[in-house]
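re the bet — no i am not wrong, look at it urself. input seq straight from the record:
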Amino acid sequence: MRAFWRNIWRIGVLSALAAMPQPALADSLSVTASGVIANACSINVASPFAPFSLDQAGSTSASATVNCNSGFSIRATSTGGALRAARAAPTGFDNALPYSLTVSIPLDNAVVVTGSCSAARLIAGQATCALSPAGAGLSSGGISAINRTAQLQVVWQAPAQSLVAGAYTDTITLSIAVQP
């Protein structure tokens, strides 16, 4: 009879063990999150050129904010190829004054890239200097320039002959593009 009770006891213990919660088998899941930041470039006027007198040699400066998160190139276009008066020039006078434009941009690696061109070489279709509109452009060499202040300088020589009276203007357009 003892054997009978021992077997009953064993059955009871085994039943109790079977009724106990068993650890659940766990599954695992890995999720990879990824994203992309697109290349972006912009340039905005920070300070315009100050008014100036053309009676003698001189220069004027402006600045622009460059914000490129990758390498870039910059080009410039001049609408007139010189500072020009709207008025025609009579004999012995001129209504255009040549100038040069220099652009200097500090990059994120502390290097400054600089390009300079005469306004005549900034007319649409020209490709003969670093900033020419049809050329490769002034390159950052693949380096970014995030919120950097570029310096622009216009320099002119004393006029070779007298200039007609009036306001002299030219429109300089800077364009910037991502460059791999």
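see?? Residues 2-19 form the longest helix (18 residues). told u. also The helical segments are 2-19. so pay up
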